[in-house]
TrEMBL record:
<dbReference type="InterPro" id="IPR023796">
    <property type="entry name" value="Serpin_dom"/>
</dbReference>
<dbReference type="InterPro" id="IPR000215">
    <property type="entry name" value="Serpin_fam"/>
</dbReference>
<dbReference type="Pfam" id="PF00079">
    <property type="entry name" value="Serpin"/>
</dbReference>
<dbReference type="GO" id="GO:0004867">
    <property type="term" value="F:serine-type endopeptidase inhibitor activity"/>
</dbReference>
<comment type="similarity">
    <text>Belongs to the serpin family.</text>
</comment>
<keyword id="KW-0646">Protease inhibitor</keyword>
<keyword id="KW-0722">Serine protease inhibitor</keyword>
<dbReference type="GO" id="GO:0005615">
    <property type="term" value="C:extracellular space"/>
</dbReference>
<dbReference type="InterPro" id="IPR036186">
    <property type="entry name" value="Serpin_sf"/>
</dbReference>
<dbReference type="InterPro" id="IPR042178">
    <property type="entry name" value="Serpin_sf_1"/>
</dbReference>
<dbReference type="InterPro" id="IPR042185">
    <property type="entry name" value="Serpin_sf_2"/>
</dbReference>
<feature type="domain" description="Serpin">
    <location>
        <begin position="1"/>
        <end position="185"/>
    </location>
</feature>
<protein>
    <submittedName>
        <fullName>Serpin B10</fullName>
    </submittedName>
</protein>
Amino acid sequence: MLHQTGHFKYHKDNYYKFSAVELPYKVGGYDMLIILPDKMDAVKDLEKVFLKNAKNYAYLLGNMTIHNVELDIPKFKFESDLNLRSTMEKLGCTDMFSPHADFSELSESASAGKLRVSNMKHKSFVDVNEEGTEAAAVTGANIDNYNMEYVFSGVKNVKFHACHPFLFIIKKEKDIIFMGRLSNPNA
C-alpha cells in the first residue's frame, strides 16, 4: 500500500454510496480519479452508474472539494490489449478494411489505390507504484505517452483506504483518457 496524507479534491456520495479522491499529476493538467464504493462487492454497480449516464461523472467532478485526506492506495499495474477491427466495423467503419478502400488522397504513389487497413489495435497500461504513476497508450502507429508523477501537496479530515475493488480514471480536465477497474487490490 502507498500511504500519503495531504490536501486533495474529495467527494463522498451518499446516494450512490461511494467516495472519490483526485490525485493531481505534476505535469500537463492530468489527474487520477479513484472512485471507491462503500461496499466491497459494489464496484460493478458503481461502474454502471458512470457508464449509463455521463451526467453522473460531470456531477462528481463538479462536487469535489479540497479535504485533508489520509490516503492508502495499493500498488497496481493494469494492461489492456484490444483488437479494434471488429469494434470499428460495428460502428460502420468497414470500407477502410475492404480491398475497395480508397486511400489515394494519402499518397501520390500509384499503389496508393491498393492500400487498405488490415488490422487496428490499441494497447494501454497504467502502473501505480512508490515512484508515481505511468500511463501510456498506443493505437496503430499513433502513440501518446503520459509519464506522470502525482503531486501530494500537504478543511476536513477524511480517510480514503482503497482496500477493496475500485474504479480509476486518468483524466485531463473533464476528458477521460483511461478508465479501469481494480478488482483485487490485495493481489
